[in-house]
Structure formats: structure tokens, C-alpha cells
Amino acid sequence: MDNPTEILSFVMGAAALMPLLGACLWFWIGKKFGNEKVAEKIVSVGAVSFMAVSFFCVLYTFLNVEGSARVTFFEWIRFNSKSAVNFAFLLDPLSLTLGLVVTGIGTLIHLYASGYMHGDPGFGRFFTYLNLFVFSMLMLTFSDSLVGVFLGWEGVGLCSYFLISFWFSEEENANAGKKAFIVNRIGDLGFLIAMCALFKVFGTLNIPELLAAVQAGSLTPDQLFWIKIACFGLVLGATGKSAQIPLYVWLPDAMAGPTPVSALIHAATMVTAGVYLTCRMQPLFLLNLEILEILAFIGGLTAIFAASIAIFQNDIKKVLAYSTISQLGFMFLAVGLIAPVAAFFHLITHACFKALLFLGAGSVIHGLHHEQDMRHMGGIRKKMPLTFWTVTIGVFAIAGIPPLSGFVSKDEILHFTWHSHRWWLIMFAFTTAFLTSFYMGRLWVMTFFGKFRGHHEAHESPVSMTAVLIVLAILSAIAGALNWPELWGGSERLNEYLRAVVSQAAGEHTEEAFYSSLKLAGISSLVGIAGLTLAWFRYRNFAGEEFKAPIFRIFKNKYYIDEIYDFAVVQNLKRIGYALWKGVDGFVIDGFLNGCASVSTKASLRFRRLQTGMTQQYALWVWIGFLLLLFGAWSLR
Description:
Layout: H1 4-32, H2 36-64, E1 69-78, E2 84-91, H3 93-116, H4 123-142, H5 146-164, H6 171-202, H7 207-216, H8 221-241, H9 250-253, H10 259-268, H11 273-280, H12 282-286, H13 289-310, H14 316-336, H15 340-367, H16 385-399, H17 405-419, H18 423-448, H19 463-478, H20 493-498, H21 511-539, H22 553-556, H23 561-608, H24 615-635
Helix pairs in contact: 1-2, 1-4, 2-3, 2-4, 3-4, 3-10, 3-15, 3-19, 4-5, 5-6, 6-8, 8-11, 10-15, 13-14, 13-18, 14-15, 14-17, 14-18, 15-16, 15-17, 15-19, 16-17, 16-18, 16-19, 17-21, 18-21
């Protein structure tokens, strides 16, 4: 294979097929071997190895592709003589960056899961779902057509359902999986509408062709109308997959799945698909700036809304779930302010420190024998030192303490928000920054400091888990160097790399801009430190009681949004379903069919009386019939 295109095709084909092959093997191996320990060892080593191969294939492509490239495997769907969908990958800075996050963080989480899921009866099934999820995410990331993106989009949704309800014998877990699946279908409807609208306008769903046609201009008012419809559909799809208002309600319940699932799907990869999609289709949104304004408002509102709920959660994973929703809101805020590089930068750093925090929470849960309530933790930092120090780095990173990665990426979003001169977005962003540091400080102090309030003695997690925490802690500390501002002596490598794919306003390099940047960085740092300090003094002597006043009830009950949805949507759908069951299915359909059967039965009972066994009577009926036929023939003359 001397041809570079053939090499890329082979390498990227291997990157996608390795997790798919693993998904075909691990469930079978888990059942085939009689010895559970041998099967578990084969599955864990194989799953991690396949993921590592996938990561190195993407890394090879990342290092060897300059600009953009496309590799076509085969023709997939033909619409007509002029339009077809190929099974092809688009390799450009946007897809390769997210591909590295998916496979890199995914490999670490697979390694962690091999220790976390040790002894679980569904060990092989778990890694089958996990590998299948990574394959679907790679399809979503690299496909050069919206059809391929939608295939991966639906694939990650399906795998999310499998993994959230993994322990389906408990009804709560099964319901959480169904909730995630159903809510995401609403967003998927928006994606489908967008695809239909774009095909109507351009006659193709190939992404490079779509974007080239948009950038070429000369669009009619009718085409611009359908493009606007497509943008609304993409926003709906993104809010569903990335858990933004009003479709965020599935993500907190998704914590019912094993902790590695929370780290991979609901922190590092799947939920960022909406951010990726809006960045990928940015030229469409630039034709509809009012939709970007809506997207920014949705992001800012979601960020502060979810952060205000996170403060009142006691389940350590639920705190991180609402934190994920809030941080995704930050990313959408940046996309709406035409700062996609800032959004993608925060996506990368968030993948590192949020995966660290979820896996750190998993280590705590594992070390406390599956205890998740922070009120029953405390004082375990000496019992679990590696977990404590790595989680501390994650907490400080998300709180925005310099020079950790979260400080750099979040500060860039705050910078764009400040210069947008939209006071409501500025209020949302800075208030969220404070709330984030406070609720993460609350988690940190309640879990590791004070007196131990638990029921089981804590112990450190195995090396397969803590080693991953250490790697993620290092990444969380240094990832900010990827786009360290030039004003502060950095090179903004990520900005330079992604500039060929997305548009973002270039920053000024004046002395005034430097001091303005330092001022904002100082304010954001003080906000983060203030939140952590307040949490320290409030919870260092936590005794198990808080937020007793009735005013806090609305926050504890998450603004009653689930109850409102249940009353306004779920119960009404049940009533409609009951009416259709009783009225249409029961009365009309069953009534018609049962009526036909009843008439036939009654008619047969009456005609049965004619069958007496008497020959004379049968002869009489034959003559009567003969006479009727004669009469009929005569009357028709």
C-alpha cells in the first residue's frame, strides 16, 4: 500500500472496525468459557487492546493528515443518478480532534472498567456495549454525510439505553434507560427534519458539498427559509443529545448505569455530539444569527439552571450529572457567540477533568462498598490518598483555579461572553462559574474531609483504576496548554489548527487587550476561589443536616420539572393511549371483528336447525330452491 490514500483507508478502517469487532466478540466469549476468571481476563485485555489500537490509528492519521482528507470505502445509498451517499470518512481538524478524545479517553475508561466491573455477571455484555458505543461515536465523528452522522447518532443513543439500564433487574435502572431513549428520540426528530430540509434545498446530504454550496452564496429566499428550518431542527437535535433545556431531564437519571458509563458516555463523548454537530454545520448557522442568539441563551440558561440544582444533590454522581449539563451549557453559550474554538477547547478539557471526576467518584463508591450518598462519607482522604489527590486536581480544574485546564478553557468562554455586551449572558456565565466552584467544593469537602459518617470502612481502589485516575489528573492539569492565550505567552495551537474548519473572531494583541484579559482572568479566578472557600467553611464540620428551610424545597425537588413533565406530557399521553385503546382498538376494531364473529355464530345457529336428518324435508327445500331459481330467471327476462 504505497498510495497514501490506501494507507489512510486501511488505518481509519481499522480504527472503526476494531471496536466493532470487539463488540461482536466479548459477549460470546463471556458466555463461551466455563471459567469466569479466564473469560473476564480475555475480555478485559481484548477490549482495552482493541481500543488502544483504535486510538493509535486515529493518532497516526492526526499526525499525517495536513488540512483535510476524505477516504471512501464503498457506495452506500443511491438516491438518484446524481446523488448518492458513500460510506466515507471526512478527516479534518474537527473530526480528528474529537476522534482523539473519543478513543483516548475511551481507552482509559475501558482500562478503568476492567477493574470496576470485576466479578459482575454481565462482564462480557458490558464491554460489548461499550465497544459498540465507541464504534457508533466514531461513525458520528468521522462520517462525511449527515446520513452517516445520523447512523452514529442513533447508535450512541441505542448503546446509551443498553448501558444506562445495564442492571435492568432493578426497575429504577430500566426506567432510566427508557427515559433516556425516549427523550432523545424527540431531539432525533429535529435532526431528521433538518436532513429533509437540507436535502430539499441542496439535493445532497454530503457535508462538504452542503457547506460548499452555502459558502458559495446565491441562495434564494425559499432556500434560506428551508435552511432556517434545518437550523431549528439541528438545535433541537443538539439540545436532546447534549441535555440542554428543555430536553435535559434524561441525563441525571442516566447515572443509574455503572460509573464508567457515566464517565465515557455522559461526560466525555456522547453528550458532546450536539456541540460537535453545531460546530460542524456552523456555515448554516451564520446565515441565521438569530438562531445562534437562541442557542447562546439556551446554553447560558441551562448552565445556571443545572448548577443551581447541583448544589442540593446528595448523590455524588447526581452532582456530577448536573455539573455536566451545566458545562455543556457553557459550550453552547460559546457556539452561540460564534466562538466554536472556545467551545471545542472546553469540550476537550471537560472530557479530561469530568472523566477524572466521574471515575474518582466511582473509586469512592467502590472503596465505600457502593455508597453514593455524600452524607454518609467524609474523612476518607487518608484511607484513599490516590483517589483524594487526583479528584482534588479535577475539582480545582472545573472550579477554574489557575493554571489548570478548566481555568484556561472556561476563561476563554467568559472572555467572549464579556465582550458580547449581553448583560443576561454575562450574569449567567459568571454566576454559573461561582456556583460550579461552590458545589464542587461541597462535593470535595463532604467526601474527603471532616468525620467519617459512613457504614463501611473505606479502602483504596485497585491499580487498574487508580492508574487511570493519575493519567487523567495529569491531562486535566496540562490540557490548557493546547490553547494557552498568545497574550499570556502561549501559541493558541488549537485555534490555529481548527481555524481551517470553523470561524471565530481573532483576538486583539494590544496592551489594552492584555490588561483586559488579565482583569477578567483575575475576576474568574477570584470567583472560583470564593466558591471553594465558602464550601470549605460551610462543610468542613458537616454533621449530616443542611438546607432545612422550606424555601430550599424547590431546589431540592429540581424545580419540579419532572413532575410538570409527568403531569403535562406523560399522564396526558397515557390518557390518549387509554382512549385509543378503549375507543379505537376496543370499540371500533375489536367491535367490528367481534361483531362479525357474533353475527356468523348466530346465523350458523339458526341455519343449523335446518339440518334435521329427514330426507323428505331436504327434498322439500330442494324444490323450494328450484322454484326460487325459476322465479328469479323469469323476473330477469
